[in-house]
Fold this sequence. Notes:
Elements: E1 24-27, E2 30-35, E3 38-42, E4 49-60, H1 66-76, E5 78-83, E6 88-93, H2 99-107, E7 112-120, E8 122-123, H3 148-152, E9 162-167, E10 222-223, H4 237-246, E11 268-273, H5 281-293, E12 298-301, E13 303-304, H6 309-320, E14 324-328, E15 347-352, E16 370-373, E17 377-381, E18 385-389, H7 396-409, H8 415-425, H9 454-462, E19 466-467, E20 490-493, E21 513-521, E22 530-538, E23 552-556, E24 559-571, E25 579-586, E26 601-609, H10 621-627, E27 631-634, E28 636-640, E29 650-654, E30 661-672, H11 678-681, E31 682-688, H12 690-696, E32 700-702, E33 704-708, E34 711-714, E35 718-726, E36 731-740, E37 749-757, E38 763-772, H13 779-782, E39 796-799, E40 806-824, E41 829-844, E42 850-857, E43 863-870
Parallel strand pairs: 9-11, 9-12, 10-11, 12-14, 14-15, 15-16, 28-38
Antiparallel strand pairs: 1-2, 2-3, 3-4, 4-6, 4-7, 5-6, 8-13, 17-18, 19-21, 20-21, 21-25, 22-24, 22-26, 23-24, 26-27, 29-36, 30-35, 30-37, 31-34, 31-36, 32-35, 33-34, 37-38, 39-40, 40-41, 40-42, 42-43
Amino acid sequence: MKKLTIFLLTIFLITGATIYSQEKMTINQQIFTKVDLDWKLIDQKTGNLFNLSDELTIQFKSSPSQEKIKQLEKAYGMKLVRSNKLGFYDFRPVQKQNLIDIYRQLLKNPIVKDVFANTIGKYILIPNDTQYTAQWYLEQASDADIDISNAWDITTGNSSVVVAILDSGSDWTHQDLGFGTDSYQNIHLNTGEDSWTNPNNPATGNGVDDDGNGYIDDWKGWDFGNSNNDSRGPYFHGTHVAGIIGAKTNNGIGISGIAGGNNSPGAGLMIVGVGDYGPNSAAMDDAILYAMDNGAKIIQLSLTVAPSSAIDAALQAAYISGVFIVCSSGNGSSTSIGYPSSNSYVFSVGATTQTDIKAGFSNSGTDLDLAAPGVSILSTQIGNTYGYSDGTSFSSPIVSATVALMLSVDATLTNEEIEYTLKCTADKVGSYNYNWNPSKQGHSKELGYGRLNAYQAVLAVSTSDIYTRDTPTDNGVEPSSGIMWASPDIWVRNDDDGGLTNENPEYKTSSPNWVYIRINNKDCSKIDDASVKLYFSKASTGLSWPLHWNNYYEFVGSNSVLHGDYIGSTSIPMSIQEEVIVKIPWYPPNPADYINDVHHFCLLSRIESASDPIGTEGNSVNTNTINNNNISWKNVSVYDLNQFDSNAPWVFIRNVDKKNQSINLNLNLTENNTGVAFKDIGKFYIKADKKLERLLEKSKLEGIKRVDKQTYQIIYPEARIDNILAKAFETYSLKFYIIPNQELPEGKSITYDIIQTDARQNNVGGERYTIGNFKKKKSSNQNSVIDENNNEKNFYSIVPNPTSGEINILFDKTYSGISITVKSITGQDFGAKYLQKGNEVSLNINGPKGLYFVSVLTDEGFSKVSKVLKE
């Protein structure tokens, strides 16, 4: 058993108000204050003071030659330390006491674009001596942990995922990090460099920059603080960070790294030193670019320094190249996070305790992204030892390690997808306000989007569960409940205008209607192999899959007419956002092809994905929709009450079974937001076709009475027809209409459902109608399938409709030059009339029974085509 060493370091922290000297100065927008005769830089956002490093960073107006560099070195008494491809040059004055004077002088040099001072920052820790016997942050009974064991059931890490640890250096000789008795290591080796003769002695390299990256013998990383290839460092901090991420797991010794493998290599640890006892901001931009250029997928920063434009540029370059960057929020108990955690390209992490609340020292605020355990964190330390320590320094590598597991499962994850998944899967702990800002739903100032849940994050990127809702409250859980044929995630727009409300489909040949489908993400999962297919069928309370949805024909008179078919499909864009909206063009069938039910169509969407397949299906569309969140069904139409009697919809009633059986119909006023009582809205009617009428004569009626041949009045808001003895696969037609008593309040509506159930009262299917006063909406919202030229106001009505032959055309006022023509669906003329002036016209349709089109044109420029059914 290895020796367990508990490090006890004493740090003096000044709390409360910080007292600065009265002597201050500003150079190039950097503010300095003198403390005990030394100038210090003030972080203007947090108020923190930083010691100055002995280096100045210069940007030149154009790339300087070697000769120009030498001239500058001589003129200002300084030496070039390093430079990078972003155009930042770090110089060290020969005498540090001259740094401020040289700074001022360089600002006046005509070849200098910018210059700034650098700082020695802090590694963000609060060591303590509390001893624990386990890594509580991985698993504990109170569940204030990251649920790592479940995540390990999915992956334990992969050596192809490299995490760059920019810190004080890490002891790669530690038996739980480098080579031990188990003969493998998690230290990343630069394969472009020849190995050292002695693997534990950086001086035994070949002295050649084998891979040409500008760093000689960087086989095990690079120390930018000391400009050499010994990246171990004298301070425990970086070793502690490294063990949290990648200590070898299940190797029989020491601790378990979160991405440490399974008695085999886990994530690779790229060791990059940026300062022995404090990070040198002058070196950090070069260290970030080094990690980016040498294969790092993740950069871990457990430090804070003063803001720097050179670091900003390097962070942006790394992020854009696909490197995910994690940084500790800071330990100052501040309500704003430190730098570079505050950079927009960095994922900021605060700390929680064993009781799942914010650690008292943890910086927080509006820009904090997430939190993770940061108190009494057991990890590796120098010399094959182990110890406990506190701080956001040790909460952020827990997040970096989780990202390494996520990338081990799916190497194609983008930075945006990683960030979204971490936030989406976090546990909302601590009883904090996670809704303080409507634009950042789910965010708290104390813990960001919550405390990390490693299992849920890894699970989300390893599985896919996407769905369309059946009801507004549907969250994707199977089986679903409620009405299945009124999905809020399918809607029609007559034009591709991006609207979010449903319009009834419009018959036109010059351009399509557009069906929009919303795809929801159930578990923050990534959508990468899915498409959605769309089908239509003529409206019916009884529909069978796939019979009525794919190349399905029924006879209309003597003609076989398409009643259902596949419309089209589209791929679902790769995304892990909460929802994606896709659209599919649709040309609805010609209403002239139908007699009954000329108006109404049902739409069915089906998400198909190899990683999220549709489950076992039967013939019942309703049952399939209940049991599969990949399937949704839309069977809703919008009607204006004032035109409802003349544009009344027909609906098919079907026995979808192969044997004769009893079916039932429920007719319900489901919702009424008009403020008008049911009985005062108007008279509600249904009209059955002749086949259905014969069956209704033998059925049981509740809340309905027969008022005429084939016609029934609905007396109560909830009515029923039971025991309709339907033949196998038989189809019937039912017309639903209202004769209004009054005009409803503008914009208000009722929702009415016709629901078909089987003998056991199980739902088979249904029709939903939204009926109201929509007079301010365009006509295609008010009516069902209409002619594309029918875009004028409704300036007349036709009664009766259906008719036995004679019709009356009633105008809303007196018009001049009224021309009227009547044509059959084949275009044959069956009547015409001209009226010089008037407000009412009567004429007779002298053709056979069927559907006719009545065209009306006036001298005032009004035109409209209406459908009339002759019975």
